[in-house]
Amino acid sequence: MISFILAAGGAAASEEPYGLTAALREGGIVSQSTFTILVLFLFVSLYILFTKLFEQTKVINQRKRIAQGFWNFSNLNEGAAKLEPNSAYRQLVDDGLAAQEQHKLLTDPVEAHDWLHNSLARSEANINSQLNGGLAFLATVGATAPFIGLFGTVVGIYRALIKIGSSGDPSIDKVAGPVGEALIMTALGLVVAVPAVLAYNWLQRRNKAIAEDLSSFSNDVLGFLASNGALRPKVAAKKAAPAKVTTPTKPTAA
User: Fold this and answer.
1) pTM (two decimals)
2) Distances from the Cα of 217 to the Cα of 59, 66, 78, 185, 206, angstroms
3) Closest CA to 98 of 64, 74, 122, 82
4) Distance from C-alpha of 112 to C-alpha of 114, rounded to nearest angstrom
5) What sign does the CA torsion over 6, 11, 14, 16 have?
6) What one-character DSSP code corresponds to residue 19?
7) Cβ pair 74, 229 in contact under 8 A
């Protein structure tokens, strides 16, 4: 990647002595390594952003289908069959049904409610852990990218000052260009860090809302299993049309 950028900017280097290509060429292995790390951070951050956004949207759409009539089924097996395989809500239902069967095999006296609650909580925690996967990298990028860029800037300024000192020409045109050129790395670090921080906060907020929905659904499944289907969430029924009120007719006077 670095060699491609340097080759592409070689023709323009004779006309424009300053810029990103010149900074990479004059900065040496330190500037090139800093640039490579920041570009990798940027692409990985964008990949995590779009993949997590896709996962979250998928779970949110599943919640909408749950609200459309999942609890109209007579039992959880019929409702689970209508859910998408390998989905978050299908996993909660399957784990709840499996825990109900496993409780019958226990030899120690464990309350069925506690066993089901712990099993559903473990399943819920597993789903939330998968949704939060990769967000730590975004937080790391947001925290470290500005300092990596600053490191490249410091090294670039150091090399520029050494070069200017050895040439013996401390005029402003010889100082301002190389020093300003070194600041490109700091700017690149901010360009990488700011989207990573914004993406992290946005995805975290969406994950919090999803976790609340999963917790509510898990509690509904627990109530259904613990009551053998007697307790289930109220399904919004269609409003019945108001009955027509007929007023009695007054008898006519003879």
Assistant:
1) 0.75
2) 12, 9, 16, 48, 17
3) 122
4) 6
5) negative
6) S
7) yes
